[in-house]
Amino acid sequence: MNDILVNWLLFAAAIATLCVSIVTKYSTYCAALNERPCGTQVGVASRTSRNLITSLLGVVVRFRCGRIAVNADVKEMFSLVAVAPADSDMLAFLWTSSVDREPDVYVNQRHVFGATCSPAVANFALREAVKRKDAATAQIANEAFYMDDLYWSDDNEDVVIERSQELKTAFREACFELSNWVSNSRNVIETWPMEERAFVVKELAGMGNSQLPKVKAVGVAWDCEQDSLTFACRRQGEKAKILSEVLSILTSVFDPLGIVGPCVLKEEWEARWQQWAGDVKVVATVSIPRWYGIDRGKPSTMHVFVDAATVGYGSVAYLAQGMTTAFVAAKSRVVNPLKTTTVPRLELQAFIVGVRLADTLLKELENRLVIGRVVFWSDSLDRHVEVRYVPSKENPADLISRGMDATGLIKRFDFWTTGPKFLKKEEEWPETKVKPPDNDLELRPKALAFLVGSNSADADKCSTVAEFLKQRLGKDTLNCEDFDREEKKIIKEAQMGDLRAEISACNKASGRSHIPRSGALQRKQIFLDETGSLGLLRS
Questions:
Q1: Where are the beta strands (DSSP E) in 228-323?
Q2: Which is higher by pLDDT, 381 or 305?
Q3: Which of 215, 262, 440, 521 registers the highest number of CB atoms within 10 A of its CB?
Q4: Are residues 358 and 479 in the same domain?
Q5: Is 258 left (phi over 0), alpha (psi -120 to 50) or beta?
Q6: Cβ of 496: how many Cβ atoms within 10 Å?
Q7: Residues 284-318 pLDDT 10s
Q8: Is residue 391 pLDDT above 70, yes or no?
Q9: CA 112/CA 26 separation, integer angstroms
Q10: Percent of the chain at pLDDT above 70?
Q11: 21 vs 198, residue with greater confidence
Q12: Is residue 14 over pLDDT 80?
């Protein structure tokens, strides 16, 4: 027993970077451990090279371009890539059957899962496998793989069948095997040998009347029968209050496209956590079509909506072609409650998010779709003519900036996933309204006090403030505390008489600042202090 214990201690101490977790017939999967105080790990010290992993967002948005889609994975990818002899020491470990002799040195001749360099090396090998093939096959290898998973689509079944066969042949020549094939087309599936199909597809008898399965694709669930993307959220307990449980539930909602962005962005986390956690399971009931439903050969228009509020800001993008509109992607950001930021500045940040989202989508879809123009929309009247105006009720980004629960998202899901109806006809687009700003939004206002007139019958009877306070307090003498206390009370009373609406709005903001759209304090950022009086924040 002691010898066995010593063997494992030597093994764990020697490799320092690798912990054997699963041993299979084909390979040993390893996971890199955290750094230890004793020194630098070998696996961490190995270089990562440049990032050869394709953007996940890019893979997803391209996966939705074609009518016929396929999914497959490279079987045992890492273990099929050999380690160069000069680098073998980087994946070495020690083993001895007895403490009385020197341990033997073993080296991995194949790359292992968990080493820092393995993803870059494996993806480089995949691309080299088809580099000398035709341009179309090489493009699929460069754009449709995320790690070892293939996600690709096209409008023509014959093209899909031909390209899938070319990929299998090219990879087989490089000793890679594409397996677990699945598609939303029965005709495509029937062309694959039974042993190459995914397990859930093998169980389908005859393929004629059998329903196609749901499979996991790019982190979400792909319903091959309905050809839609949906979610699978883990069930959580009723009292999930511990931080680790909260993070576990949050990370279970894997949403690279931002489809359920409005219900993920919520205000008042502490007070409403239980309600939000219960609503997460509702997310599993929503889905969007995988295919955009547009003709790839014809030009389409990308519409990007942006909006900002004191809770958050974000943007959402749609594709429009004729009478067809489709959700593409969305990005949301939560406003830091500890940092005061004006709404105009948040609107600018929302525009930055929108521009970056559009730029990313244009680059990712460059070789797959013809996007003739990009139109930005905002419900802010202070923006210039390069951005079109849209009313708040027709701005889908408004759902992101204000946040909503999952039930609310379900009620407006058609609007969220297809956009406003006017996108289908340009002649129905809202008229762009541009109101010249009262002042430059980039200039910081220096005035922090305003004089608001107020008539008081009691004050008119007294010639001095001291006389007024003596009468008010019923005292013959006054001290400094009396002056300070009564000054605050008088200010509060005056504000309640003339600024009641602003005070009510601040109360509804629950401690947050507020910017009135009209009145004496229009466009000024106000808040309630500890005495309940209105104050102004410097923007």
A1: 228-230, 287-289, 300-308, 312-321
A2: 305
A3: 262
A4: no
A5: left
A6: 13
A7: 778 899 999 999 989 999 999 999 988 899 999 99
A8: yes
A9: 11
A10: 70
A11: 198
A12: no
> If you ran DSSP here, which 8-state letter would residue 80 be given?
G
Tell whether 18 and 89 lie within a shared domain: yes
Question: Which of 418, 443, 468 is the endpoint of a domain?
Answer: 443
Q: Which residue's entry shows tokens 């994946």?
A: 91
* In a domain? residue 420: yes
Last-in-domain residue among 443, 468, 493: 443
Please report the pLDDT score of residue 122 as a whole number: 83
Q: Are residues 125 and 259 in the same domain?
A: no
Provide the domain limits for residue 190: 2-229
Regarding whether 467 and 411 lie in a shared domain, the answer is no
pLDDT in tens, 445-488: 554 555 555 555 455 545 566 666 666 666 767 777 777 777 77
Rounded CA-CA distance 434/381 in Å is 6
Residue ranges of E strands in 207-280:
214-217, 220-223, 228-230
Q: What is the mean pLDDT of residues 202-225?
A: 78
* First-to-last C-alpha distance (Å) of the chain: 71
HSE (side-chain half, CA atoms, 13 Å) at 489: 9
| Proportion of the chain in helix, strand, coil states, percent, rounded to 5 | 40, 20, 40
- Kindly tell me the burial class for residue 91, based on how many C-beta atoms sit within 10 Å of its own C-beta (0-12, 13-18, 19 or more): buried
| Cα–Cα dist 197/220, whole Å | 20
3-state secondary structure of 9: helix
Exposure pattern of 378-397 as b/e (b: 16+ CB <10 Å)?
bbbeebeeebbbbeeebbbb
Do residues 487 and 431 share a domain? no
Of the candidates 229, 227, 232, the one whose C-alpha atom is nearest the C-alpha of residue 183 is 227
Higher pLDDT, 293 or 234: 293
User: Which H, E and C letters describe 469-503, residue by residue?
Assistant: HHHHHCCCCCCHHHHHHHHHHHHHHHHHHHCHHHH
Domain count, the chain: 3
Q: Fill in the amino acid letter for 109.
A: Q
Q: Are residues 402 and 348 in the same domain?
A: yes
Residue 366 lies in a domain: yes
* The 3-state secondary structure of 385-410, one letter per residue: CCCEECCHHHCCHHHHHHCCCHHHHH
In the prediction, which pLDDT does 269 show?
53
Residues 182 and 255 occupy one common structural domain: no
Establish if 259 belongs to a structural domain. yes
CA 46/CA 91 separation, integer angstroms: 10
Give the integer Cα–Cα distance in Å for 86 and 291.
47
- Judge whether 374 and 304 are in contact, CB under 8 Å: yes
Judged against a pLDDT cut of 50, whether residue 28 lies above it is answered with no
DSSP structure string for 415-451: HHHH--GGGG-GGGSPPP--PPPSS-TTSPP------
H helix count then E strand count, the chain = 19, 19
What is the pLDDT of the chain when averaged over all its residues? 76
Tell me if 354 is assigned to some domain: yes
